[in-house]
Amino acid sequence: MAGDFQFISIQVNEPVKDKATRRRARSHALKKALERKRKDQQRSRTNFIPTTFKDPDIDPNFNDPAETAKPCTMTCTNPPAPVYSPLSGALDPFQTLAVDSSRLQALLGDYRARQAPEPVFSVAEELAFQSFRSVFRTGFQDPALINAVMLTLAFAVTGGSLDRECLRYQGQAITYIRERMDSEHDAASEAVIGAILLIAGVGARLGLKPQVELHMGAVQQLLQICQRKSIHLTPGIQRAIFWQDLNSSLMVGSKRIVNHTTFAPLLWTRDAFVPNFYRLPPGFQSRSHIFEGEFRAVLEDLHALQCIRNIPRSSHIDAMGMLHINNHVASIQSRLKALSGLSRLQECCRLAAYLCSMTLCCKIWCELVLPSHMSSQLLFNLRTLRDDADAGAWDGDRDADLLVWLLYIGGAFAPVGPVRSGYVNVLALDYPHISWASLHQCMRQFIWSDDAFLMPVRALWAEVPQYHLRGVGV
């Protein structure tokens, strides 16, 4: 075989005295020995050696210096070091991604990018059922998807603004998506749908309603193709479509393309074994005439979610339990979004109920942009309601306890800034005299969980100037 042998002229029975010739012979022998060794390793799949690194998402003892690192990836002895993604659990030992692998690693190591909640997929332990792998059944090989992922991560690092890097990833992702959309066979896949959803999510954060509707319209077309061609999509991507559609609709008012009954994996029904969970709490029960029909049913289901949250050790629910809770929340929020023709007071209660559904059972959901957005909407409606009462159109004193619950639920999840200050100002003017004991008792008459709400509500209460002696009731 060509290249296997190298002929060196020497005299028979005479030692090789020329140093250059000896060096060439020795070098050639070593080269062939290494080639044979590598081929043997490749055939036996032993050309990977374990390496270790500490990753806070993988090693639970990351912050404990007494603990040693755990093996969590493999490195090929021949190619460069691999890219390991905690999002996908997939290896890319040959650096074949359509983006800069080192930049991907840097973004994954950035706390702002890794902790940014994203309804399409999650790296949070609480939402392990919605991991990258379970949603897409693949790694980062798809160029449209990986560019959309990079866009999402980089967008989170910038704090919600499109810089040059974000625009580059967005442009690349859209280019690849358009190429795939030319063929129904290539377009109808979790990767393409996921890439579009991620781009739509960035558009929603920026308040770009036309762009969001354009992207979600494309997802709707792909769903129709999948249905026509009997293409099965993963439950994870179906769940991603539902949440991105709902969240975007809440953020920018885009038209919804699905609801809680569209996909089988999200279907939810009441648990017949705990019928007492599904009732109105006392504060709402005394105003049952305000909450009729579907609104009443949703509030009953929200109270059941509160009961689940209050079960001891419920914070350690496994993945299947979290799936059921996720479906429970999906049903509540989708139905709340569909309510229409509400009075101003009912609208305030709808927004507060939405806030409770997002913050009761999962800390990660509290990190979404939506709670602060809903809090802002609630403050606007409460101010309008207060003006109506001042004009004599509505008696606010009759429902003072309900208004206190609305104000504290809304303000507790508002970030530091104008909206939170707005809640503090209203509370200081109208309800500055509430002791913590009285406030706590008032809040418990409605949707309430000490585990989920006590700390943020008490923090807000401490910010309200107490102009009167504490200890006086509402």
TrEMBL record:
Which segments show compositional bias classed as Basic residues?
A: 20-36
Domain of life, per UniProt, equals Eukaryota
Q: Where is this region: Disordered?
A: 17-61
Task: Return the PANTHER family for the record.
Answer: TRANSCRIPTION FACTOR (ACR-2), PUTATIVE-RELATED-RELATED, TRANSCRIPTION FACTOR DOMAIN-CONTAINING PROTEIN
Q: What protein name does the entry list?
A: Transcription factor domain-containing protein
Species of provenance: Aspergillus indologenus CBS 114.80
